[in-house]
Structures are given as structure tokens and as C-alpha cells.
């Protein structure tokens, strides 16, 4: 049945290509808004080789698409084209009469317009306000992770495609430098610490001996697993090393040269308020990420209120555990971070042991969560350590969705760079957030939902929903009895406090004009997080304005809706129905989630 479903899915894609061709040929409006959005999604995916590879299911049709040998080349012209496309698509979507659309299509229309309005404003007013090269998600990190973690090598052809992609690195970086040079003309530069991190990362990559370069070592490991003649393997290894020498390393050197040349121009300030019309840019970022009209001041106040509430509960637990009241909650949590009883010994096999323990937590949680959802995802989730080449500046954990065809599981990446990043009492909450019932459950269920249109499944994402759900999941797991140990509950509360603090520091940096050091001081004093974590997190918020606010805003909205449903339904309330109302409709903005929960309430009354 699974094979038949994917065959049907691919047939649908082929049919949509036909619709796309006829539509363009005769300048006709597509049959429906779903077809139109699907057509655009297919165009966008076909123009994005990495997206097609990420889906996995399209790889078997590489003979037609050729995507496995390509990489995206994004330059200034592409930015202009993207803005023009967004305006054309908005006009077309607005032309559909909402009264003639089905209820589900009306929702889709609202989502698409909200997304496009934000995109157009950003690309028209602030095309160069982001920092495309930074310490956590720049091209120099993303392209390597894509090649090592996503590009498949299941046969000799895919090994050769890997080499083809390596030979495109110089062209990809050249296009990126075109955008960076335009930013330079507009005097937009990231803060100095971004330059320092990126320059260090680029030097580290360039200083790898050939046999230790991750692009080579991963290729070597994957090819060794193939049934290929020794002579063919040796030829492949020579070709990879030649591509690294002639394309990859020159690309990284060109970016390093740019960063070193422009370092004297680094922004001496840390918030985007310092950029042209920075306050307006930040307001747009908050709208896009939180899918609300909350002002920066609103979010700052919510953050302060939540910090006070959560800190009070943590104080109660700490008192019951016998900790002194002379120290603040943050100081006590900081002491716990240093306490050897909560830390893994720094042994050579530490990472393997931590990954094993995380895996056991995920398995236990999956069993308990069967009572809280009508269905759990079929796709499995694996726990892996964050790759060493990016772990120093990565967050404590992150998640990667499974391939659509089941060829790749979901992955929960745990950052094991510093032993103090993994106190045992915080492990459960991170697993709840990244795996089950958090990101993996939500993402995999959405991918496996056959009732969703192509656009609703792949065309729109908001961290207010995805991250809001993951943070809600931590609280849900506690309610389900998965953190009965008070230390584990402290870990969950510290995580929630961390997200509440984010509301304060993100708006503090980008709206109230705090310095990097002021924000770090506040976060450490309130949360008790380690110095390593605090530095990494604050520097992340500086280069990614607004995103950190989405977690708590999303969680609070889901909890608000759950309480409303409980109040109105009384004994008729079913947690599984509530979770279906939230999860069964893709990843919509919060104002759309609210409508779905209202429908559920009305249907069950």
C-alpha cells in the first residue's frame, strides 16, 4: 500500500506538471487554488535541487530532473525575480472568489496571502537586512551539512553526482558574494563577533588535511559500503579530492577573503534597530515569526510575566529538595549545571553513551504518548550527535524531518560539545521537544497526512506553530507523568523559563537596544544556563531577530485554546480530539489554529 501511495503521489506530480504547462501555454487560471499553489510549489522545488533531494522520493526520477548533480545558485537577479513572482502570485490568489472556495480552500487562501504579504514586504523594503553568512546557519555550514547528511550515496551514480555538486561550490559561493557585496554598498554588516566566528570556521575547514575533510570522510564511509570495484573506488576518491582542491577550497577561500576585508566595517551595535528602518524591520520579523500583531513591547511584557511565574514554581521545587533560599533560582540552577552528579564523565565514549540514553528516553515517551493521540507517525526518529565541524556554535539540539519516501528517518541532533550542555535533569525535556511528542511527531504526522494539499503540506511553515507545538509538548510530557522526578521537572521548567527569557532578551536586543553583554547577563542570572549555552543562544538571537519569540508565543496560544476547549466542552473534552484539531491541518498561522479549535468545540458540543 505504501508503494502504491507514492506511485499515486508521483503520478499526481506528473499530472500537475502537465497542468502547469497548459496553464502557461494558454495563460489560463488553473483549475483551483490548490492546483495553482501546487504548480508554484513544484516550480519552486524544481528550481531547488536541494529541496528535491531533501524529499528523497524524487531521486529515482533524477534521469528526468538531473537535480542530484545541481546546487542552487542564488544571486542578485534571483532576489529580483523572487519579488516579482511573489507579487504575481499574490494577485492571482486574491483573484479567487473566497465565496466559491471550499472551507478548506478558504483557509489555504488566507495562509497563502499572509505568507506572501510578509515576503513581499521583506523583499521590497528590507532585501539585505538579514545576515546570510553567520555562525549558525550560513552557506559555509549549510552546504557542507547538506552534502554530508542529505545527499544520498546508494550507488556509484549517486557518488558521481556528489562529485558534480562539489564542483559547483565555487559558482555557488560566487553568487553569494554578489549579495554580500551589495550589502557592503548599503553599509549593512553583522556585529564583530559574527565575523570572528565565521573567520574561525572558514579557517578550520580550510585547514583540514585532505583525508580529514568531512566532505571526503563522509564520502569515503558511504562509498566503502557499496559493492564497487577497488579501482573504481580509488578513482572516485581521487575525483573527490580534486573537486575539494579546485572548487570547494577556492570557494571557502573567497568567502574568507571577503570576511577578512570587511571585518573593519563590522557593526559596533547588536540589535537590528541600528539598521536603516530597523524598528520597522523588527516589527515585520515578529509578525512573520509569531503570526500575531503583538508589538515588541507586548512581547517584552509577556516575557517578564512568564519569567516571574515560572521562577516561582522552580523556587517551590528547589525548596522542597532542600536547596537554600539565599541564592536565586538562576544561581542554584547554575550550581546544578556544575554538579558532577548531573554530568556525564568526559570519557572518549561519552557521546555514544549520551546518544544511547537519549534513545531510551525517546522509546519510553513513544509508548506513553499512544494514549494522547489518535495515531503516532510511522516514520522513526534517530538520535545523533551534532557534527563536530558545527557543534561549537550550534544550539543545544535540533531536528531534521524524515524523507517523504521513508528512505531517511527523522533525526534529533543533540549538541554534545560541552559536557555541561547535557546535565541529566535536562535531557528528558530536550528529547520531548525535538523528538516525541515534539518536532518529530508533528512533522512526521504532517508528512504522512494524505488529506493535506501539496501546499498545506510543504508550502508554508511558521515557527510559531512548529516551535510552539514543541514547547507545548514538553509540558504535555510532564502532564503524562514522564517527568515524575522533581529534577526532571526542574529541567522542563528551566527549558520553559529559557523560552520566556527569550521573549525578554530578543526584544531587549532588537527593540530596547540592549548590548550583547547585557542580554547574556540577564539570561544567565535568570536561567542558570552554562556560559557556553548563554553565549551561543544570545549570539543566535542577534543574527536571527524575532525567531526566538515564536516558541513561547505559540505555546501560550495552544495552551489558551486547550483551556478554552476544556471550559466549553467539560466532560466532552478529549485530549486526542484537541491534538487532532491542532495537528491535522498542516502548519498554519496561530490565527488559523484558533479557528480549527473553535470548529472542534462546536462539533463536539
Structure characterization notes:
- By secondary structure, the chain is mainly alpha-helical.
- Among the domains are: 141-268, no CATH class; 282-555, no CATH class.
- It is 65% helix and 2% strand.
- A three-stranded mixed β-sheet has the order 1-3-2.
- Residues 1-28 have low confidence and may be disordered.
Please give the largest β-sheet: 3 strands, mixed
> Outline, from the CA principal axes?
globular
Report helical residue fraction. Answer: 55-70%
Give the class from helix and strand content and strand pairing. Answer: mainly alpha
Ends distance: 36 Å
Gyration radius over CA: 24 Å
Strand content: under 5%
Q: What is the strand tally?
A: 3
> Helix-strand pattern, N to C?
HHHHHHHHHHHHHHHHEEEHHHHHHHHHH
Question: How many helices?
Answer: 26
User: What order do the strands of the largest sheet run in, or round the barrel if closed?
Assistant: 1-3-2
Low-confidence stretches: 1-28
Report the mean per-residue pLDDT as an integer.
91
Provide keyphrases for this structure:
mainly alpha, three-stranded mixed beta sheet, disordered N terminus, 605 residues
Quickly describe the structure.
The protein is mainly alpha-helical. It is 65% helix and 2% strand.
Amino acid at each position: 500500500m505504501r508503494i502504491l501511495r507514492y506511485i499515486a503521489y508521483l503520478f499526481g506530480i506528473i499530472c500537475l506538471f502537465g497542468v502547469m504547462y497548459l496553464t502557461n501555454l494558454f495563460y489560463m487560471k488553473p483549475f483551483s487554488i490548490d492546483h495553482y499553489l501546487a504548480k508554484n510549489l513544484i516550480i519552486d522545488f524544481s528550481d531547488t535541487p536541494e529541496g528535491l533531494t531533501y524529499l528523497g522520493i524524487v531521486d529515482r526520477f533524477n534521469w528526468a530532473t538531473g537535480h542530484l548533480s545541481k546546487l542552487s545558485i542564488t544571486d542578485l537577479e534571483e532576489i529580483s525575480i523572487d519579488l516579482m513572482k511573489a507579487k504575481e502570485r499574490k494577485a492571482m490568489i486574491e483573484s479567487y472568489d473566497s465565496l466559491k472556495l471550499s472551507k478548506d480552500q478558504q483557509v489555504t487562501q488566507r495562509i497563502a496571502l499572509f505568507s506572501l504579504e510578509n515576503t513581499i514586504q521583506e523583499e521590497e523594503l528590507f532585501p539585505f537586512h538579514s545576515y546570510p553568512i553567520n555562525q549558525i546557519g550560513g552557506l559555509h555550514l549549510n552546504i557542507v551539512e547538506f552534502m554530508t547528511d542529505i545527499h544520498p550515496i546508494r550507488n556509484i551514480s549517486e557518488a558521481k553526482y556528489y562529485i558534480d555538486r562539489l564542483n559547483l561550490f565555487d559558482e555557488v559561493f560566487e553568487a553569494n558574494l554578489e549579495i554580500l557585496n551589495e550589502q557592503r554598498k548599503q553599509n549593512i554588516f553583522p556585529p564583530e563577533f559574527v565575523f570572528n566566528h565565521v573567520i574561525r570556521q572558514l579557517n578550520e575547514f580550510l585547514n583540514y588535511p585532505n583525508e580529514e575533510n568531512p566532505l571526503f570522510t563522509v564520502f569515503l564511509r558511504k562509498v566503502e559500503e557499496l559493492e564497487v570495484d577497488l579501482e573504481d573506488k580509488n578513482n572516485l576518491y581521487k575525483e573527490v579530492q580534486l573537486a575539494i582542491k579546485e572548487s570547494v577550497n577556492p570557494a571557502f577561500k573567497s568567502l574568507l577573503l571577503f570576511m577578512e576585508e570587511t571585518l573593519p566595517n563590522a557593526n559596533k551595535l547588536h540589535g537590528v534597530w541600528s539598521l536603516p528602518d530597523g524598528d520597522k524591520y523588527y516589527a515585520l520579523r515578529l509578525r512573520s515569526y509569531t503570526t500575531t500583531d503583538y508589538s515588541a513591547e507586548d512581547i517584552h511584557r509577556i516575557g517578564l510575566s512568564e519569567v516571574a511565574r515560572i521562577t516561582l514554581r522552580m523556587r517551590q521545587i528547589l525548596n522542597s529538595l532542600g536547596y537554600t533560599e539565599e541564592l536565586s533560582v538562576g544561581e542554584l540552577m547554575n550550581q546544578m549545571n556544575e554538579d558532577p552528579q548531573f554530568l556525564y564523565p568526559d570519557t572518549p565514549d561519552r557521546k555514544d553513551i549520551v546518544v544511547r540514553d537519549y534513545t531510551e528516553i525517546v522509546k519510553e515517551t513513544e509508548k506513553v504518548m499512544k494514549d494522547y493521540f489518535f495515531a503516532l507517525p510511522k516514520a522513526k526518529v534517530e538520535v545523533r550527535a551534532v557534527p563536530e565541524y558545527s557543534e561549537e556554535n550550534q544550539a543545544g539540539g535540533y531536528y531534521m524531518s524524515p524523507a517523504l519516501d521513508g528512505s531517511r528517518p527523522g533525526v534529533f541532533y543533540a549538541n554534545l560539545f560541552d559536557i555541561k550542555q547535557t546535565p541529566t535533569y535536562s535531557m528528558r525535556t530536550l528529547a520531548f521537544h525535538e523528538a516525541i511528542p515534539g518536532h518529530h511527531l508533528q512533522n512526521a504526522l504532517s508528512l504522512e497526512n494524505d488529506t493535506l494539499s501539496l501546499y498545506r503540506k510543504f508550502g508554508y511553515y511558521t515557527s510559531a506553530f512548529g516551535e510552539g507545538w514543541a514547547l507545548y509538548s514538553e509540558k504535555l510530557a510532564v502532564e503524562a507523568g514522564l517527568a515524575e522526578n522533581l529534577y526532571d521537572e526542574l529541567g522542563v521548567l528551566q527549558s520553559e523559563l529559557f523560552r520566556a527569557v527569550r521573549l525578554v532578551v530578543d526584544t531587549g536586543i532588537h527593540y530596547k537596544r540592549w548590548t550583547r553583554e547585557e542580554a547574556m547577563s540577564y539570561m544567565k542570572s535568570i536561567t542558570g544556563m552554562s556560559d557556553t549555552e548563554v553565549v551561543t543562544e544570545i549570539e543566535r538571537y542577534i543574527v536571527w531577530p524575532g525567531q526566538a519569540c515564536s516558541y513561547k508565543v505559540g505555546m501560550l496560544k495552544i495552551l489558551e485554546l486547550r483551556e478554552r476547549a476544556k471550559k466549553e466542552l467539560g466532560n466532552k473534552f478529549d485530549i486526542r480530539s484537541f491534538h487532532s484539531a491542532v495537528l491535522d491541518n498542516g502548519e498554519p498561522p496561530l490565527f488559523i489554529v484558533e479557528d480549527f479549535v473553535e470548529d472542534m468545540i462546536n462539533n463536539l458540543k
